[in-house]
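Dear colleagues,

For the upcoming journal club I promised to circulate an example of a predicted protein-ligand complex. I picked one with EPZ because it came up in last month's discussion. The inputs are reproduced below in full, followed by the predicted structure.
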Amino acid sequence: MDRIRISGGRRLEGFIPISGAKNAALPLMIASLLTSETMTLHNVPRLSDVRLLMRILGNHGVDAAISGKRIGQSDESGETITLSARDIVDTTAPYELVSRMRASFWVVAPLLARMGEARVSLPGGCAIGTRPVDLLLMALEKLGASIEIDSGYVIAKAPKGLRGGLIDFPKVTVGGTHVALMAASLAHGTTEIHNAAREPEVADLAECLIKMGARIEGIGTSRIVIEGVSRLGGAHHHVLPDRIETGTYAMAVAMTGGDVMLGGARSDLLQSALGVLQQAGVEVLTSDLGIRIRRNGNGLMPVDIETQPFPGFPTDLQAQFMALMTRADGNSRIHETIFENRFMHVQELARLGAKIRLDGDVAYVEGRTRLTGAPVMATDLRASVSLVIAALAAEGETLVNRVYHLDRGFEALEKKLFRCGADIERLSGER
Ligand code: EPZ
């Protein structure tokens, strides 16, 4: 099993190209099930989750191919993937596959909308909390589906097709909004989604659906209206840049000091996190090239945060920010409001010397901590990368185990950091 070795203490300087967003690419790929025509996605990140989803879609009959490089493209250009669901051969998504990636549960929506039925395994446990799918199923029921749970599988049926309805989410859910958008696009009549997620990845899916022929209004707001159509066609779509990868590297630079241009990053996708970094004393300069992050010599101010749905501070950057706050010139308070159990990184950060006290969904982080290298591992990808960030500033050597978590969500992590001066390498095939 691969590990990553990091010797801390180096400043980061240079250029990091930001990849396409994992959390946009996955629902976009799933949307290919809605049409018999070919969908072409550009700027898809090279990640194990993308590969796994290609396999899962293949199981339903989707022909998926990764195009070769074209002239002028570099390793950082992202991949172009074509997906063609001409014939859906199987409407069952088995436990063995869905349990490996929660987002694959979302296939329930296009399968049901296009084929009138879907049998999809419940995703099961997950390292960051219970993460139920009740709101996703509620949305499908509002569109006229019958839902049954049998032997760990959701059996969703709408033999006469879905019909438009009002979906009022009691809580903001990204997956629920993706599912509602995909299902409503092929339903008869009008659907209104209230309290829709406003995450940029939801808007990216909606924009791609429009290119496929869907009629959607209110993109980027919490009230989305969809006029169902009888069929959708193919489309070409560019995956938007990854705001979580952007925020992660911004925090790595803030942690080590330095000056890095995050190429292709868009500040409008993470205003809240960038604002917090500025409050902490980090320079953030936005240009056509991307976002430049700079911290030269000056200390870091502690900042209290609370995770919130977009446009608030993202839960997917909470662990990384916690690592950063161990080095602030004072104590800070981090309140996780989205997931009930997303503090798995705290114990591992403690192995590096962090002093963090947990009280329910609040973490109190002591600043001015001396971090020292140690072997660590984590149970999800954002937690893993928070350990990488801490290790970059720790004295001595850190070995990050279970690198497969990082490979799920960070394209070429060690290469991107190495090129900016970090002392980091992947140790292959060792335990
Ligand atoms: C998406 O997960 C992301 N995953 C997560 O990123 C991200 O942390 C999360 O949104 C919040 O931003 C992908 O996009 C693939 P939710 P999702 O439905 O859609 C509760 C990462 O590291 N809820 O918005 O599954 C739920 O338990 C991952 O890249 C219900 O109660 O999240 C949570 O408390 C991790 N019932 C809250 O809503 C439901 O039916 C928000 O979850 C659905 C959700």
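Two points we might discuss: The chain has 14 helices and 24 strands. The domain at 3-18+241-427 is CATH 3.65.10.10 (UDP-n-acetylglucosamine1-carboxyvinyl-transferase; Chain).

See you all on Thursday,
B. R.
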